[in-house]
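re: the backbone from monday

yeah here it is again, tokenized this time
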């Protein structure tokens, strides 16, 4: 990723300088695009916003937000009042919680669907029986943490036919894995806290809009609602993104190896990973994802929730922590969170594969699984 660098003038820095100013010298009426105040438009964001836009194949820069959830909130703000949102029943937990809260307040209407069942989603988009056609389709593929794969291009075509805006949460796949704007999506949303940042040291989000109109609405929303990240975090994100392709090559390869080994491990009842031929999402993932199925694997541990908790107790390399997409491998039993969906099995452990030696990762996981499932 070579973009987002200063001009090659003699003596110029190779990297954009870190700008840590909240305000900028400004007399009279500021002209559009002139730096004035960091919440309105921060020049410290421009390099990384440009890089994210290029990675997603957008005609314009991305818009940074202070978290993935702030980015999702901004994207959902584009639903007209009373409009219907079609959202995966098992989207990222925060997305579902926010969508439900907006519906409860009467701001939007909500249809929750199995995003991997194309026919069901298409029917929900049409509305009928008194319900208006959808105003927005939210796609997450693969979903976190059940790893369901949605048919991006087919769903987008159906959404366009009813005039719905389409937003795709591309956090798990990353733009190197898939580019939803190429499928015809209107918005691509990221938690940059995950693979884009890649080092578990920042919380940030981003949205890339296909149209100038959506882009400017998102920037207005950010300015007024104020979920603007700091210049320092923008520096960290750009630094992280420089290695995203290398990290993902390693992560994809290691995840594929680990998934194959986990698939035949006696302590694993079921594995959710669309890179495995036996996975229901395999065929779709193969056609719409590049480079592999990504770095997140979910396993159901034989022996139930207690055994699953022990796995997180016994690993020495896999950090027992929430989040994903870092260079360090992490794992957690998702149902330890009180608000997690009932659809997520109690014994499901989500693994986020990092860049450590794959055989060391395997040895650590193997011993933890075996020990956790030993008869007591
Ligand atoms: C983590 C995550 C989010 C939320 O992002 P934050 O940066 O934690 O606010 C949204 N979508 C997906 C798929 C995620 O994994």
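seq for it, each position gets an aa:
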């Amino acid at each position: 990723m070579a973009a987002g660098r200063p001009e090659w003038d003699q003596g110029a820095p190779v990297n954009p300088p870190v700008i840590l100013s909240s305000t900028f010298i400004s007399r009279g009426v500021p002209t559009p695009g002139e730096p004035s105040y960091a919440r309105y438009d921060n020049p410290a964001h421009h390099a990384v916003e440009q890089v994210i836009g290029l990675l997603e194949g957008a005609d314009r820069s991305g818009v940074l937000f202070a978290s993935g959830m702030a980015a999702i909130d901004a994207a959902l703000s584009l639903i007209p009042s009373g409009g219907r949102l079609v959202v995966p029943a098992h989207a990222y937990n925060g997305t579902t919680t926010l969508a439900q809260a907006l519906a409860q307040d009467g701001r939007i209407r909500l249809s929750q669907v199995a995003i991997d069942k194309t026919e069901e989603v298409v029917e929900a988009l049409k509305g009928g029986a008194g319900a208006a056609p959808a105003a927005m389709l939210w796609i997450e593929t693969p979903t976190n943490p059940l790893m369901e794969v949605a048919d991006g291009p087919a769903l987008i075509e159906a959404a366009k036919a009813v005039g719905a805006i389409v937003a795709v949460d591309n956090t798990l796949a990353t733009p190197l894995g898939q580019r939803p704007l190429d499928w015809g999506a209107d918005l691509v949303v990221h938690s940059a806290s995950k693979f884009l940042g890649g080092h578990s040291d920042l919380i940030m989000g981003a949205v890339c809009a296909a149209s100038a109109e959506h882009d400017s609405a998102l920037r207005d929303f950010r300015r007024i609602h104020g979920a603007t990240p700091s210049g320092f975090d923008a520096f960290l994100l750009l630094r992280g993104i420089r290695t995203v392709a290398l990290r993902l090559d390693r992560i994809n390869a290691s995840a594929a190896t680990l998934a194959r080994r986990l698939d035949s491990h006696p302590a694993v009842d079921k594995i959710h990973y669309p890179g495995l031929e036996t996975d229901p999402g395999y065929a779709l993932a193969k056609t719409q994802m590049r480079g592999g199925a990504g770095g997140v694997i979910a396993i159901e541990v034989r022996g139930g929730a207690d055994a699953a908790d022990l796995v997180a107790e016994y690993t020495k390399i896999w950090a027992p922590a929430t989040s994903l997409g870092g260079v360090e491998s992490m794992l957690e039993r998702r149902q330890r969170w009180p608000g997690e969906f009932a659809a997520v099995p109690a014994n499901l452990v989500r693994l986020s594969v990092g860049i450590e030696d794959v055989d060391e990762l395997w040895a650590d996981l193997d011993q933890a699984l075996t020990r956790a499932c030993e008869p007591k």
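The first helix runs from residue 46 to 55. The mean pLDDT is 96.
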